[in-house]
Amino acid sequence: MRATLMYGAGDVRVEDVPDPKIQQPADAVVRVLRSCICGSDLWPYGSMPSAEHGERMGHEFLGMVEDIGSEVSGLKRGDLVVAPFVWSDNTCDFCREGLHTSCRHGGLWAANGIDGGQGEAVRVPQAQGTLVKLPVTEDSALLPSLLTLSDVLCTGHHCAVTAGVNARTTVTVVGDGAVGLSAVLAAKRLGAERIILMGRHKDRTDLGRDFGATDVVPERGEEGIERVRELTGGDGTHTVLECVGTLPALQMSIGAVRAGGTISRVGAPQYGEVPLGFPEFMNNITLTGGVAPARAYIEELLPDVLEGRIEPGRVFDRTVGLDDVPAGYRAMADREALKVLVQP
Fold it and tell me: What is this structure's pTM?
């Protein structure tokens, strides 16, 4: 089959790799119908050292079950399924606590011999616990929105949930990428009436307004912090959803949060130390967030997608075939595309 590999910064190739097959009784093989490029894929795309052997890519996909292992129940060939971006057994103590990203028997796609989502098919370990059946056909117009359940929508939702967003909280979202826009959508879904989106790309912030943002702050740094405080009577907002992962984004979040407030960070951190000192201690600032246990949220969010109450698939603004995935990476890295959908 064909699949995406990264050989170094800026060097993405689509090559022939072995076809996936059942290796363990708990496996399934899924033919990929839709996958995508994640903002987190851009970090290695910009900095990965060159290597002789490429690394498989992709952790977001949905598709059709083509084969199942002898110990898999509740799934059959022909089922349409979505896979969260971490596979898990959904039965261990961490999974039962809703922390599937710490599953005792789980792992990551495109690592340790596991296929990546940016390919024609994937061997799925722990298939019964990982895959969620979707009650639609493979030609459904909902596939892009359903694909967001694999990562980006659940990550935005996790950010809002861990921050404690509700109808009584004001919200600042830092970042107008796909995760930030999903966080706006999630905050609106949880009842927030005041949502300030910090972003400077008008096409993206316009979509953010459609998703529920009430204000847009294009300024960055101290200017951006000052603008948020102007909009909130000098206080800042009860919650800040940090959806970028850089130190400047975190610093803006600290500056924009209200005393007693909460910052949730879900952007993959590109820094080693968190600048929370005595002033933040005195203001009782809480820092939370982390990697989203998407599997814990899919069933909760699925009905809203199926019934059209939310349209998270609107974050996809470009579609490519598998052979054009390298161009998709370039488009996202050059800010020519918000999020690229891959249709093998």
Answer: 0.96
